[in-house]
Amino acid sequence: MTEQFIYVACGLSAGLLGGYLGLGGGIVMVPFLTVIAGLDIKIAVPVSVTAIVVNSFSASNEYLKKGMVDLELVIILSIFMVMGNITGSNLNRIIPANYTKLILTVLLVYTAFSLLKGKQPTEQLPFKSNKGKYIMVSTVLAYFTGILAGLVGIGGGIILVPLLYLVIGLPLTTARGTSSFMIGFSSAAASAVYLLNGMIDYKIAAEVILGIIIGGKLGGYFGTTAKPIVVKILFFIVMLYLAYKMSYQPLMELL
Amino acid sequence: MNEKQFKIEFIIKIQKIFWYVAFVYFALLGVMYYFNFSHTHLLAQAGVYFILTATILKLFIIAEQFHSARLYRFWFLSYLLMFILFSTVLMKYLL
């Protein structure tokens, strides 16, 4: 019974933090499930990608309502990201758990620093779309983002948003909206691979999904408010702690 | 994009319905797991299948919206994406 609450709480806090800080949720969920709930990363990753699909339903709807999703771009980039996700989730079955943990640790540290110093670029910046110019580069980057996302069980928003904003030149909110809509398709592909290989623990998945459904909605509601620096610092510390906990054992075994 | 033909509200409505269904379904599953009901495991499995089917259905709706907006290139690409998603199943059973 306690376990059930821990899994629901992991999903809830991942959804809440993810929505509040503008992340997909996976980057928080996998470390929570492995470090706090004590799950093996090979179980946490399939659960995470499945929960992200549901989270995308509500997260992207808010952006769709405001017309902040570029659906044409969603379709083009999703093709490559989905292929990447299929590759990544198949790689997850081959790559040892310790390496998966180390890759996720690098992403965690990157996320922590980018959130802390991340000066939010303003919407007033001159909007210059490079959609036609850099589409080929973007498809390649989307493919590699997909590989990473499928491998470590994240949505990939942490890489996708800068790609859409800096390379394609979409306005920041549109980049976020487009990313959150794309993540639904790409995570579904990874989830299907794990499902067909019998790697999803349905009991844990059901509990985490329930948590992320509620947390994602709450996070989206609070996400529009300003984020005090205290919250950012707190989140930075938590992320670094999770990164340390997750990488310590694999590093000791490798060295 | 042909805004008049492309009904974005339809996609919003469908996503909202999927979200509510998922919420009720998984909340019930949570209760069933709490009281240790039998066959909950099978229902949880069906829940995961529902999520994936809902995603495919959403993509189908987007594809048909592109078709009615006469954006045939994106209509074709949407079906290509759907095929790639289905290829995970094909890869499993054909290779």
Describe this structure in words.
The complex is a heterodimer of chains A (255) and B (95). Helices cover 80% and strands 0% of the residues of chain A. The model of chain A has no long low-confidence stretch (mean pLDDT 85). The longest helix of chain A has 26 residues. Chain A contains 10 helices and no strands. Chain A is mostly helical and 255 residues long. Chain B has 95 residues and is mostly helical. Helices cover 83% and strands 0% of the residues of chain B. Chain B is built from 3 helices and no strands. The longest helix of chain B is centred in the middle third of the chain and has 29 residues. Chain B is flat. Chains A and B meet through helix 3, helix 4, helix 8 and helix 9 of A and helix 1, helix 2 and helix 3 of B.
In short:
The complex is a heterodimer of chains A (255) and B (95). Chain A has 255 residues and is mainly alpha-helical.
- Any idea how many domains of chain A? 1
Oligomer: heterodimer
Kindly name the structural category of chain B: mainly alpha
Low-confidence stretches of chain A: none
What's the layout of helices and strands?
The complex is a heterodimer of chains A (255) and B (95).
Chain A (H helix, E strand, L loop, with lengths): L1 H20 L4 H11 L4 H25 L5 H24 L2 H21 L17 H18 L4 H12 L3 H25 L5 H22 L5 H26 L1
Helix pairs in contact in A: 1-2, 1-9, 2-3, 2-10, 3-8, 3-9, 4-6, 4-8, 5-10, 6-7, 7-8
Chain B lengths: L7 H27 L5 H29 L3 H23 L1
Helix pairs in contact in B: 1-2, 2-3
Keywords for this structure?
heterodimer, A: 255 residues, mainly alpha, 80% helix, 0% strand, B: 95 residues
